[in-house]
Amino acid sequence: MTEVVVDHAQGAVVPVHALRERELASFLEGRPAFVKAFAELSEFKAKAGQVLVVPDAAGAIDQVLLGLGAAGDAQGFRVLGARLPAGDYRIASAPAEIAPDQIALAFALGSYRFDRYKKKGETHPRLVAAEGVDVAQVRSIAHACALARDMVNTPAGDMGPLQIETIAREIAEQYGAGITVVTGEGLLEANYPAVHAVGRAATPERAPRMIEITWGQEGHPLVALVGKGVVFDTGGLDIKPSAGMRNMKKDMGGAAHALALGRMIMAAGLPVRLAILLPVVENAISGDAMRPGDVLDSRKGLTIEVGNTDAEGRLILADALTRAGELEPALTIDLATLTGAARMALGPQLPPYYTDDEELAAQIEAAAAAVADPLWRMPLWKGYVDSLDSDVADMKNDSDAWAQAGSVTAALFLQKFAPSGPWVHLDIFAWNPRGRPGWPSGGEAQSIRALFAMIAGRFS
């Protein structure tokens, strides 16, 4: 990844003035008449996302005005990474309550491009970070977010179970972590029957696997990160329509986010032990695919009736969450691109999270606000638990139609397998369906900056 946040310039540095709408008039009063006239001619009103490049008499860039709207936060600076021409810039003025490190991180996030399959050669603007900004940490978080986005953007043909394992091994090696991988028929011997059942229909070179990374010093509290790793979801025998299948390369977004969050934690050296648990499968179709009506065993010992083969993510997470419980974590976080119902409820930009732990919820809310990484708490409504009852097994993987709330019932399913103690489930989308400057269409890192900030504060 090109470094777009630096601690010193290589040449001339262009000042950037970030303005809210109410600040524009007073700002322009103190500027040369040309700047005021140019802003008026360009209809610059400091609306959110507006960027005005102001030239000097020789035609070079003299300064840049950035609009933050009525009450913009740090994420408003993402547009700079996408809209500015190549060169070095610095933030000359900005609202005092927006932290310089969050501005630098937003600039880096907005500079992201997925160009694996394109001819290279694009240049990027660079931000000279304000004094006191920890440039190394900004880069670490930006690189982790870029990793998640790259993994989500990469087609399933190039991001199968083996490729995710390879990335996991590279991260483990980089940070001195341990890693174990159980593959194929070995999943049955190691008691991951649900992971095996979901992934067994794939070709041998794309066999299902359970990846476990461990890191940290004994005596530190254990944080378990569980990520859904369905590299492609056909829907199984309950096959998706073509429109629903088109972007299913992103169904491993939970695994990508768990790896990215784990990488942030290890890079920062937080005082925790870490377990990253990734059930990785392809929900393929073959003569060996699981069928509607099949009854699966699970690591926990509960039997699960398969009501719908397209509700496969919760099946593999069930085994992984059970494994997490065996490690006796102080905190468990699972991340999954789990339900379309979450998008129906909150849309693509606002991921829901579920927890019964009030202290944990308060910490997540505070962290999300502090780093402008939005989340929304949804209820683990016990009135819908009965919708998961099965006539032939301990439970089923698709809730009765009367319950309707598909994201809630999926979370209730996972709660049956979650470790005791603090646990939170995030039903992320990991995708921008509408591209705009600073937020290109495609893979997006959601919630992990907030979770990193929460973990850093909780275990400091």
TrEMBL record:
One of its GO terms (cellular component) is cytoplasm. Coiled coil: none annotated. Transmembrane segments: none annotated. GO terms for molecular function: manganese ion binding; metalloaminopeptidase activity. Keywords: Aminopeptidase, Hydrolase, Manganese, Protease. SUPFAM superfamilies: Macro domain-like, Zn-dependent exopeptidases. Residues 308-315 form the Cytosol aminopeptidase domain. InterPro entries: Leucine_aapep/pepB, Macro_dom-like, Peptidase_M17_C, Peptidase_M17_N_1. Its EC number is 3.4.11.1. One of its GO terms (biological process) is proteolysis. PROSITE patterns: CYTOSOL_AP. Belongs to the peptidase M17 family. This is Leucyl aminopeptidase.
